[in-house]
Amino acid sequence: MNQQSNSHGPLAGLRVIEMGTLLAGPFCGQLLGDMGAEIIKVEAPGMGDPMRVWGQEKAHGQSLWWPVVARNKKSVTINLRVPEGQALVKQLVAKADFVLENFRPGTMERWNLGFEDLKAINPGLIMVRVSGQGQTGPYSKRAGYGSIGEAMGGLRYVCGDPSTPPSRMGISIGDSLAATHATVGALSALYHREKTGEGQVVDSAIYEAVLAMMESLVTEYDQTGYIRERTGAILPNVAPSNVYPTSDGKMILIAANQDTVFKRLSAAMGRPELAEDERYATHAARGHHQAELDELVSAWTATMEADALVDLMEESGVPVGKIYRAPEMLEDPHFQAREAIVKVPHPTIGDLSMQNVVPKLSLTPGSVRTVGPELGEHNQEVFGQLLEMDQDQIDQLAENGII
Predict the structure, then answer these.
(1) What is the homologous superfamily of the domain 241-328 according to CATH?
(2) Which region holds residue 239: left if phi is over 0, alpha if psi is between -120 and 50, else beta?
(3) Quick check: 401 and 102 in contact, CB under 8 A?
């Protein structure tokens, strides 16, 4: 619909009106923006998205999370709680391909911005709705944070050591999974619209996005009564595949659970007979003797320094990897060669390192073009150029607290 966008990527020419805050909705906007869509983020005047101030560490008093999750976006301010603001949003929707929101279900309808209201303005509109429990069902109106979705979807129960209560991931994985599935839904709906001209609603629930990643967990219980438990650093009956110690205090992950790979590991250990031992000769046997096999491998790896161990595993054709933190990522030549991390200029902080766009496309790659914008940074551009308002009209909206 939007043919004037100067974005670069496969989704250039598409326009998204992003509403909502924090992570589940905005990460979907980040993914679409990474691939070239024009993202117009609507924020509350004077407040903005709380992500502007979130994050464990700050630079010069500024969030280091906001530049990432709001990258490639334009910021406008609109008061969605008043009729004048709602009318302004509808003008934007008339010129958009997608509306993306992650308010509690029912909120958009109370603001006269539900799908039926917006569809009347733009029949081809795709409305992407991200929420904790979905748009329907008895839990739909509940407040839904990512942590609750992770608990309901089964992820929290299986994370951590069996000797401790369930652990959380060190990232907001539930929100990100819901956003990723919302992006898949948005592009699927776009393909349908290309064929039929019809818009529709994409309903992405956090708990269902987590549930979708839980492999055969439900089916195992349904058919056998088996309930997966927390297992720490291992998967039961998959051995050897664990984090192993080294003589210089590093942690190395070795995954040699396939029969042919275990033979190569055994040879590298100087213990080729292990691959013929009935306790370790097959996948099932290694799984049954997992603990003792891990002890054998650990005793061997503890005699070697990490770099030498990695070199030996690579030479032997055994999957191996160091446990990376940010410093290791920034120093790694493979990350550098593939530009997995890029530097993006920030107007006040300087160059910021952040993860690049994934996946890589050979003909129309996405890109990180800008960091997260200042609040209302694009009011003049969007209202003046896109909605063709003159300066007096924009000033009047500001004076009345609408923008």
Answers:
(1) formyl-coa transferase, domain 3 (3.30.1540.10)
(2) beta
(3) no
- Cα separation, 295 vs 309, in Å, equals 17
pLDDT tens column, 303-340: 999 999 999 999 999 999 999 999 999 999 999 999 99
- Cα(286)–Cα(266) distance, rounded to whole angstroms? 13
pTM reported for the whole predicted model: 0.91
DSSP class of 77: E
> Is 183 exposed, middle or buried, given 0-12, 13-18 or 19+ CB atoms closer than 10 A?
buried
3-class SS shares of the chain: helix, strand, coil, % to 5: 40, 15, 45
Each residue's pLDDT tens digit, 221-251 = 999 999 999 999 888 889 999 999 999 999 9
Closest by CA to 182, choosing from 65, 263, 101, 266, is: 101
Which residues lie below 8 Å from residue 137, measured CB to CB, with a gap of 6+? none
Distance CA 194, CA 14 (A): 13
Looking at 175, 277, 294, 395, which residue is catalytic? 175
Task: Please name the residues in contact with 352: beta carbons below 8 A apart, sequence gap of 6 or more.
Answer: 64, 67, 343, 344, 345, 346, 371
- Phi and psi angles of residue 43, each rounded to the nearest 5 degrees, phi first: -125, 155
277 is catalytic: no
Residues 393/402, Cβ–Cβ less than 8 Å: no
The fold for domain 15-213+340-399 equals Rossmann fold (3.40.50)
